[in-house]
Amino acid sequence: MDLKAPLEVGIEVTSKCNQKCFFCIANSQCCQLTYELHTEQLKNVISQLSDIGVALVHFTGGEPLTRSDIFDVYCYAKDVGLDIGISTNGTLIHRYFKEICKTVDAIQISLNGSSSLVHNEIQGFGFQKTLNAIRKLTDNGIKVTISTVACQKNYKEIPKIFELATRLNVSAFHLSDLMPAGRGLSVWKDQRLDHSQWQKIFSYFDSLNGSVNKDILVNLDYTFSFLFNKNKNYYYSANKMQTIGSEASARCSCGETRCYIAPNGDVFPCPLLRNLVAGNIKTKSFKEIWNESTLFLSLRKTINSVPSDCIACSERRYCGGGCMGSAYNLSGSYLIGDPRCPIKTKK
Prior knowledge:
Elements: E1 8-12, H1 39-52, E2 56-60, H2 70-79, E3 83-88, H3 97-103, E4 106-110, H4 116-123, H5 127-139, E5 143-150, H6 158-167, E6 172-177, H7 183-191, H8 195-206, E7 216-221, E8 233-237, E9 240-244, E10 258-261, E11 266-268, E12 279-280, H9 286-292, H10 294-303, H11 316-319, H12 324-331, H13 342-346
Parallel strand pairs: 1-2, 1-10, 2-3, 3-4, 4-5, 5-6, 6-7
Antiparallel strand pairs: 7-8, 8-9, 10-11, 11-12
């Protein structure tokens, strides 16, 4: 695939966050850094993305709502024709509730426990604020996705978190793996779920067929789910569970169909590869970085080939070698197969 523009770009609008999740892959901080893109620079970036045909821009951080200009920038992005997503921890929703109701169609909110005890242990504080925000948003017709990172601290609560999500009338529930990046790298060995625990999670959702009363999309984002389940998306509608989506057939497409922009303007392939910088938006146009960066050109060649240590694997067509970011952070090279692979770890 040779795209003249990525399908999706994630913009980390700030590194500042009022919480401190112990597994944060962005390693967010409590204060805003002086070199972050200011309002007009962000708008200029957004104009560039629109001009070259980017379809979707997702605002993340840090915590986007710590920026006082966030909805000025958000509305500008909508005005130039971009589809916009935004991820937040939900604790600052009350500051911008009127703006959100006027401008936002959908929003993703982090919820990492079904109780204040577990959620606050992971994120620092804010359980009740987050629940109140989700209720107000769904009551006002805003589509909410609850995002949960599976780890040892909340593993036993995952069914309860999903039950809470259905009671809150959210549109989607996204459960992801704890990844070895940022603060997550130092806790990854102790806090990640093993393959058997993920298999139990999938079995739990399989068992719900016919028992869910809400329409809700469930995305179970585990790289190696193909070893026991070829689908990882579920749609619960009218008390009937259906699997949707198709079998994975290629490696991660970071740098090929998507990329990210850091608060300081660095352009990089994905949150797990933030140390590999393709260029900076302050000194080069996004179009030039996307089409001419040595890093992106190299990644695109890598994506279309299976790592040499995975060629003999009978399952390679499902993952293509796994996550390049995990490989890089755990081994120092994105050219090898993902070291997290259960097949590798059994050897």
